[in-house]
Amino acid sequence: MLDIRNLHVELEEDGKQILKGLDLSVGAGQVHAIMGPNGSGKSTLSYVLAGRDGYSVTEGSAHLGDVDLLALEPEERASAGLFLAFQYPVEIPGVGNMTFLRTALNAQRKARGEEEVSSADFLKLVRQKAQSLRIDAEMLKRPINVGFSGGEKKRNEILQMAVLEPRMCILDETDSGLDVDAMRLVSEGVNALRDAGRAFLVITHYQRLLDHITPDVVHIMANGRIIKTGGPELALEVERNGYADLLAEAQ
């Protein structure tokens, strides 16, 4: 599904190298978690895959199936099936939640040569998805994330993911700032989307999210590359002992 080979990335502003030969493969139907200390390049990886400005790929490749992600504009990557849930979702005053969701969905359907969704069918779809995330009708009527709590913003991101049904879902520290109840709701939304044709890359600092979203594979990232890969027990090891021993092993 997602195949990254020898990816090197630097900041355009000052040429600082962030990713230093990263390799990663996520198969269809799998959930992979990436953990690591601050500054290891986890969020940079998500930004580069999504096509955010400010980063320069100096070497390597990233493919979603047979699609060369690095050759596409951000909206083309989204139409190819890539979705990024942000660590800090932004507020967009003046743009209604429902308008944004329908426009995004129909833009992607059009890019794939599919028919647009009618207003009635879209309303039915959104209500169904929103109910499972406990997003009420009032939230749907408001501008995107304006006045939302941290938990509401994260649930709104998962609602977008549920409506768009991407093939590759990247969650960049979605658990950041969530209380226990909000984390459970977000995790339930993610788990409801797990199937054989969809993959997830979950970036997190904490084991607590992985208590709800059980990963197939856990990667530890440091200094711009993956230094160790294992099963869910690897996340428990980090929870108990921190990163010091793993960083020492990688040197």
Automatic annotation (TrEMBL):
Alphabetized UniProt keyword annotations: ATP-binding, Nucleotide-binding
Record domain ABC transporter: where: 2-248
InterPro entries, A to Z: AAA+_ATPase, ABC_transporter-like_ATP-bd, ABC_transporter-like_CS, FeS-cluster_ATPase_SufC, P-loop_NTPase
Keyword ATP-binding: yes
Superkingdom of the source species: Bacteria
Keyword Cell membrane: no
GO molecular function ontology, one term from the record: ATP binding
CDD domains reported in the protein's UniProt record: ABC_FeS_Assembly (cd03217)
NCBIfam families according to UniProt: sufC (TIGR01978)
UniProt similarity note: Belongs to the ABC transporter superfamily. Ycf16 family.
Name the record gives this protein: Fe-S cluster assembly ATPase SufC
Source species of the chain: Rubellimicrobium roseum
Taxonomic lineage: Bacteria, Pseudomonadati, Pseudomonadota, Alphaproteobacteria, Rhodobacterales
